[in-house]
């Protein structure tokens, strides 16, 4: 085994790496779920927020210098980061640093992914990293970034792009790469109408995950060059990568499971349908995403709450949950919860039935409600006798119906005021 692949060498590489998480996006495809919060702040998995996954990946990979770039409606995201991610010790050179759009260079907001990094060049320079790892803040996955950085060094690469194998229909939503046998990137098309398939596999394409490793000096050079181009959109996928692949050493890094070698778990929860389905996947007996993995914990901030409670045991009024995940602070009072995921501090009152529901924190479901195939946003109070998910025509008059038939319910749709930080 050579030095590059040893854990000790990877550890040294991660210690010399600064991670930058792009967390400023609105996530408009999530509809009203991002009306008052940025997509990375959307709750996920019963007790987490989406941003916790890339942050936990950094921590578990040994990267303890992280900047989080924020922009769109960032209050709840900033509050979550301050409460849950302020435990790193600055005197040891560890930090999660907040980098909101603050017009440091010009009087404009972040104009694109590359511009967001460019506007913080002075801050990045002050940390003297050898490598810069750029991450999206809105995907659900567990990934050790150490081997990717190690491969980057081993290839003497200027830039390395994390990638997934996806079907051709899905590939139209990604940056699609063409690579040679050594994994060197020969072509890059951002969201192509006709994606280039993998050699030998006409049904698959190689898609960018939006995860990049750069040599720091090279990154600075390319960002400064891009900033001077008047017609650039200042985006890594549209501008930086296509411009450098023919002149510099750009390599792909396939994201695979370390044990099986197969495609690793990765989800883009960018639509309400995907958000609903990905949450409910966690309920399975052996879900692909194991939240109970002690070797790779997902860190977060969660308010201290009592255990979940189930009360009443009458034949017509039994508090119960089957094939479900129920978080702390929940009270299931004479109601039935089936194949559903309840976040913290949810109360479901007597004679109500929830099936295939994702219920975000601080929700009250009053008596005799029936809710199916729904996402209930934080802070909703579902009035007594409400029926959701059985009659789409009636639901569409008040709520949002997704192409997959999932009903999204928010406090505004119920005519209720917001009483909680989103």
UniProtKB/TrEMBL annotation:
GO terms for molecular function: ATP binding; glucose-1-phosphate adenylyltransferase activity. Residues 19-281 form the Nucleotidyl transferase domain. It comes from the Bacteria. Transmembrane segments: none annotated. PROSITE patterns: ADP_GLC_PYROPHOSPH_1 (PS00808), ADP_GLC_PYROPHOSPH_2 (PS00809), ADP_GLC_PYROPHOSPH_3 (PS00810). Residues 306-409 form the Glucose-1-phosphate adenylyltransferase/Bifunctional protein GlmU-like C-terminal hexapeptide domain. The record marks 71, 109 as: Could play a key role in the communication between the regulatory and the substrate sites. HAMAP family: GlgC. This is Glucose-1-phosphate adenylyltransferase. It comes from Thiogranum longum. The gene is glgC.
């Amino acid at each position: 085994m050579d030095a590059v692949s040893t854990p000790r060498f990877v550890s040294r590489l991660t210690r010399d790496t600064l991670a930058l998480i792009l967390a400023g996006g609105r996530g408009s495809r999530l509809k009203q779920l991002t009306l008052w919060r940025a997509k990375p702040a959307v709750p996920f998995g019963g007790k987490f927020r989406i941003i916790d996954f890339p942050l936990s990946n950094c921590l578990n990979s040994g990267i303890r210098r992280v900047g989080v770039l924020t922009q769109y409606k960032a209050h709840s995201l900033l509050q979550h980061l301050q409460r849950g991610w302020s435990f790193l010790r600055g005197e040891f050179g560890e930090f999660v640093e907040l980098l909101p759009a603050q017009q440091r260079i010009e009087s404009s907001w972040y104009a694109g992914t590359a511009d967001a990094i460019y506007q913080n060049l002075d801050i990045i320079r002050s940390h003297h990293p050898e490598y810069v790892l750029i991450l999206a803040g809105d995907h659900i996955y567990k990934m050790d970034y150490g081997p990717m950085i190690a491969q980057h060094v081993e290839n003497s690469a200027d830039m390395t792009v994390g990638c997934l194998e996806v079907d051709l229909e899905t590939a139209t939503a990604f940056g699609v790469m063409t690579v040679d046998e050594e994994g060197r990137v020969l072509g890059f098309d951002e969201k192509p109408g006709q994606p280039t398939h993998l050699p030998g596999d006409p049904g698959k394409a190689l898609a960018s995950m939006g995860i990049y490793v750069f040599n720091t000096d090279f990154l600075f050079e390319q960002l400064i060059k891009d900033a001077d181009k008047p017609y650039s959109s200042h985006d890594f996928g549209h501008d930086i990568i296509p411009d450098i692949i023919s002149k510099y050493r750009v390599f792909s890094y396939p994201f695979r499971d370390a044990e099986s070698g197969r495609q690793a778990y990765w989800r883009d929860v960018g639509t309400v349908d995907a958000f609903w389905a990905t949450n409910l996947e966690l309920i399975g007996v052996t879900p692909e995403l194991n939240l109970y993995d002690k070797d790779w914990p997902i860190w977060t901030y969660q308010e201290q709450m009592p255990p979940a409670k189930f009360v009443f045991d009458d034949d017509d009024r039994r508090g119960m949950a089957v094939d479900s995940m129920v978080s702390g602070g929940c009270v299931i009072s004479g109601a039935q919860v089936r194949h559903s995921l309840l976040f913290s501090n949810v109360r479901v009152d007597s004679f109500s039935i929830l099936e295939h529901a994702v219920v975000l924190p601080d929700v009250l479901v009053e008596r005799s409600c029936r809710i199916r195939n729904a996402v209930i946003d934080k802070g909703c109070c579902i009035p007594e006798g409400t029926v959701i998910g059985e009659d789409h025509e009636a639901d569409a008059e008040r709520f949002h119906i997704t192409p997959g038939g999932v009903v999204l319910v928010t406090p505004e749709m119920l005519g209720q005021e917001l009483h909680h930080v989103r």
